[in-house]
């Protein structure tokens, strides 16, 4: 820096790091490589903290986990070619769940672009369908503008990943940067909804008899949980959430019926099917909710759809009142207008909904150590600020069904893409983001092995994550589907030669505890929580435990098995 | 039903990929696409003819609008417009058919722009229907090559 003090010329790498600092970045999950040498050299002089995962996929999932539990934009970095392609799953994962990321990739020097040079991959081309936007930087003077735009695009409207591809020579060139003025004429962020439509919504709420709120990840993103709760309480509206919407209302709130969809609560699915008014907020009528049958979903209802993304309106179901806007601002306005109107007559509806809820509670056997019992015990021992990060599979659904999430942004899971291997690195991002809050990773023996190398990152950074491994020795979710729908013909779902995970943890310098009986569950969890460092709890569970209820493929959501 | 969409997009490399990729991955059917720079060198105009019902077209418009590089999308299908397409057509001719072919070209107000011993090349502009009709008319003589630009459209001035 000092040698540049006289002139304003700076290296591209330095311009980049300063631009990141201006966006408030204090943490990058990155993995070095040949074309990133100028950047890693400049990083030595930057205050930005760098976390080294053991695989680029771990880096991008960690940035994603960081973003989910904070609401801030997560940043990751990888080198050209294989480094960049290793990010692809993580980028797609963030895109599907609308998570704000700025993804930085190194690229070969501009003179070699397009020549199949060493470690070259067209990462902007590869990621076009899974990024909100992307840049290939050809001139270091553009870096301040591009970084500013990238953060704005990633974090506003419907959030998502934005990729910046940085050729080595661009990082190395010394230039006087252009000012950081955004040029985004083609990008508008909806905020307040149409007021006449809002009045229509308030009137419809006042006049309905069988209302349901269907709350999704957009509620969390917009910070709309508080106003949603006020509206639900004021108008006596039952609430169902999607997987991504968990935390919209605190667990145990009397208006909350639980999760809706393929592994949803029976009362939630029945209520959606029978309602006369569906207030859908920050949702996309995903096929895990509708069973892929949009035309059979909430057919008796007037459907109100509030979303920040116009392209989600009427994509799957017909919508009677669409409102494009920020969920919090729109709901505040709806609540304002509604307060001048009579409350709806919903006593009979609540009698019905309560009857469903009482008749079909979420339940499990208490005579043995079940995964559900482990998850409920976690909830009993944790506090309201505890974060639960999950992988993908049966354990994910059990966590969604049975863990009492009280506050939003404390539940992070790969919803849309369903990425096995997400959990462990995402938990790293979450723990680094909020070092004082307890982090539980709920994982299975399948998912855990997909990013198991990140145990080294946990150990090195002394992250006190409590890993709850529900170890059934099988790929449980797929096996369950084979059991239910393929005549118990189990194909490639046995993980017979699993390693001893306690020893694996210990090899990384992480404490491992095996739990074999139901009597040990609470004490082992309590011991792990009390221990100041990371702990792996290996719970031996039966491969025959099922996620219930379940809607068979192709069936409407009222036709649940095991409710 | 065919819809004609006019999109103003940024004039950068990669923009066409984004638009074309969007159509491909969401299985929207492009009938024709023409792109060229506008009077503002930073913007290109895309004229996209796409097949689909109203709901599909609404989705196409919304998805296009979501792209950061797309500044605006207008559906001109129901509007009063002038639409034109340019075609270059090479037709086989023999001493026996030459006169008839030239007469057909004349009827359609085409222009002969190149001529060889056994074939001639015709330039024809018009709406899509006229070009289709011409192609039908000359096909029996031997259609050797056909190049069409795809439809371009401009709104009629409101008089």
From TrEMBL, chain A:
One of its GO terms (cellular component) is acetolactate synthase complex. It comes from the Bacteria. Pfam families: TPP_enzyme_C, TPP_enzyme_M, TPP_enzyme_N. InterPro entries: Acetolactate_synth_lsu, AHAS_TPP, DHS-like_NAD/FAD-binding_dom, THDP-binding, Thiamin_PyroP_enz_cen_dom, Thiamin_PyroP_enz_TPP-bd_dom, TPP-bd_CS, TPP_enz. Residues 11-124 form the Thiamine pyrophosphate enzyme N-terminal TPP-binding domain. Its EC number is 2.2.1.6. CDD domains: TPP_AHAS (cd02015), TPP_PYR_POX_like (cd07035). Residues 391-539 form the Thiamine pyrophosphate enzyme TPP-binding domain. The keyword Protease does not apply. Pathway: Amino-acid biosynthesis; L-valine biosynthesis; L-valine from pyruvate: step 1/4; Amino-acid biosynthesis; L-isoleucine biosynthesis; L-isoleucine from 2-oxobutanoate: step 1/4. Residues 198-333 form the Thiamine pyrophosphate enzyme central domain. Binds 1 Mg(2+) ion per subunit. Binds 1 thiamine pyrophosphate per subunit. One of its GO terms (molecular function) is thiamine pyrophosphate binding. PROSITE patterns: TPP_ENZYMES. One of its GO terms (biological process) is isoleucine biosynthetic process. It catalyses: 2 pyruvate + H(+) = (2S)-2-acetolactate + CO2. Signal peptide: none annotated. Belongs to the TPP enzyme family. This is Acetolactate synthase. It comes from Candidatus Desulfosporosinus infrequens. The lineage of its organism: Bacteria, Bacillati, Bacillota, Clostridia, Eubacteriales. The gene is ilvI_2.
From TrEMBL, chain B:
GO terms for biological process: isoleucine biosynthetic process; L-valine biosynthetic process. Keywords: Amino-acid biosynthesis, Branched-chain amino acid biosynthesis, Transferase. InterPro entries: Acetalactate_synth_ssu, Acetolactate_synth/TF_NikR_C, Acetolactate_synth_ssu_C, ACT-like_dom_sf, ACT_dom, AHAS_ACT, AHAS_small-like_ACT. It catalyses: 2 pyruvate + H(+) = (2S)-2-acetolactate + CO2. One of its GO terms (cellular component) is cytosol. Its EC number is 2.2.1.6. It comes from the Bacteria. Pathway: Amino-acid biosynthesis; L-valine biosynthesis; L-valine from pyruvate: step 1/4; Amino-acid biosynthesis; L-isoleucine biosynthesis; L-isoleucine from 2-oxobutanoate: step 1/4. The keyword Amino-acid biosynthesis applies. Pfam families: ACT_AHAS_ss (PF22629), ALS_ss_C (PF10369). Residues 4-78 form the ACT domain. One of its GO terms (molecular function) is acetolactate synthase regulator activity. Dimer of large and small chains. Catalyzes the conversion of 2 pyruvate molecules into acetolactate in the first common step of the biosynthetic pathway of the branched-amino acids such as leucine, isoleucine, and valine. This is Acetolactate synthase small subunit. It comes from Candidatus Desulfosporosinus infrequens.
């Amino acid at each position: 820096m000092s040698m540049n003090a006289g002139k304003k010329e700076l290296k591209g790498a330095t311009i980049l790091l300063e631009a990141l600092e201006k966006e408030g970045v204090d943490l990058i999950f990155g993995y070095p490589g040949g074309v990133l040498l100028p950047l890693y050299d400049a990083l030595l002089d930057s205050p930005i903290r760098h976390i080294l995962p053991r695989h680029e996929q771990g880096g991008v999932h960690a940035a994603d986990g960081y973003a989910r539990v904070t609401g801030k934009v997560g940043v990751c970095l990888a080198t050209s070619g294989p480094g960049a392609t290793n990010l692809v799953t993580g980028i797609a994962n963030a895109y599907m769940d609308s998570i704000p990321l700025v993804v930085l990739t190194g690229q070969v020097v501009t003179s070699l672009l397009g020549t199949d040079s060493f470690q070259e991959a067209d990462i902007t081309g590869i990621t076009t369908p899974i990024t909100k936007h992307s840049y290939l930087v050809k001139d270091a003077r553009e870096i301040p503008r591009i970084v500013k735009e990238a953060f704005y695009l990633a974090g506003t409207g419907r959030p998502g990943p934005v990729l910046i591809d940085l050729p080595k020579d661009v990082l190395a060139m010394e230039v006087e940067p252009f000012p950081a003025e955004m040029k985004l004429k083609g990008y508008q962020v909806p905020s307040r909804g149409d007021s006449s439509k809002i009045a229509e919504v308030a009137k419809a709420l006042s006049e309905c008899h069988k209302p349901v709120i269907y709350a999704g990840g957009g509620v969390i993103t917009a910070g709309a949980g508080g106003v949603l709760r006020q509206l639900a309480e004021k108008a006596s509206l039952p609430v169902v959430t999607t997987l991504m919407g968990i935390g919209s209302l605190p667990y145990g709130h009397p208006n909350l019926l639980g999760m809706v969809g393929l592994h949803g609560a029976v009362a939630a699915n029945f209520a959606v099917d029978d309602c006369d008014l569906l207030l859908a907020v920050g949702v996309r009528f995903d096929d895990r909710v509708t069973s892929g049958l949009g035309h059979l979903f909430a057919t008796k209802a007037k459907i109100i759809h509030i979303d920040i993304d116009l392209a989600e309106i009427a994509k799957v179901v017909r919508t009677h009142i669409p409102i494009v806007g920020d969920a919090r601002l729109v709901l505040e306005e709806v609540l304002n207008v509604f307060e001048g109107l009579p409350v709806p007559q919903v006593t009979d509806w609540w009698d019905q909904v309560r009857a469903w809820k009482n008749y079909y509670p979420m339940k499990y056997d208490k005579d043995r150590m079940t995964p559900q019992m482990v998850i409920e015990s976690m909830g009993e021992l944790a506090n309201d600020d505890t974060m639960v990060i999950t992988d993908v599979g049966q354990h994910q659904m059990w966590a969604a069904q049975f863990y009492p999430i009280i506050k939003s942004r404390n539940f992070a899971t790969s919803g849309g893409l369903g990425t096995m291997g997400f959990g462990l690195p995402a938990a790293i991002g979450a723990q680094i983001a909020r070092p004082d809050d307890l982090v539980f990773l709920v994982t299975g023996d399948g998912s855990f092995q997909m990013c198991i190398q990140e145990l080294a990152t946990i150990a090195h950074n002394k992250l006190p994550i409590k890993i709850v491994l529900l170890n059934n020795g099988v790929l449980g979710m797929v096996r369950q589907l084979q059991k239910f729908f393929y005549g118990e013909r189990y194909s490639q779902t046995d993980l017979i030669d699993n390693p001893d995970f306690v020893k694996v943890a210990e090899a990384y310098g992480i404490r491992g505890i095996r739990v074999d009986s139901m009597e040990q569950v609470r004490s082992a969890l309590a011991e792990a929580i009390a221990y100041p460092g990371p702990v792996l709890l290996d719970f031996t569970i039966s491969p025959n435990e099922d996620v219930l209820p379940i809607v068979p493929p192709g069936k409407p959501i009222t036709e649940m098995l095991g409710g | 039903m065919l819809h004609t969409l006019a999109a103003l997009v940024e004039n950068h490399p990669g923009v066409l990929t984004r638009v074309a990729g969007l159509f491909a991955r969401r299985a929207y059917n492009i009938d024709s696409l023409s792109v060229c720079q506008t009077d503002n060198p930073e913007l290109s105009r895309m004229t996209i003819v796409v097949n689909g019902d109203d709901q599909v077209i609404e989705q196409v418009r919304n998805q296009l609008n979501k792209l950061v590089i797309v500044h605006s999308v207008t559906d001109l299908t129901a509007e009063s417009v002038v639409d034109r397409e340019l075609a270059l057509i090479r037709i086989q001719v023999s001493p026996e058919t030459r006169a008839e072919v030239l007469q057909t070209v004349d009827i359609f107000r085409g222009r002969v722009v190149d001529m060889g011993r056994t074939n001639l090349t015709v330039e024809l502009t018009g709406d899509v229907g006229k070009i289709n009709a011409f192609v039908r008319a000359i096909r029996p003589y031997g259609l050797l090559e056909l190049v069409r630009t795809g439809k371009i459209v401009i709104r009629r001035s409101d008089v």
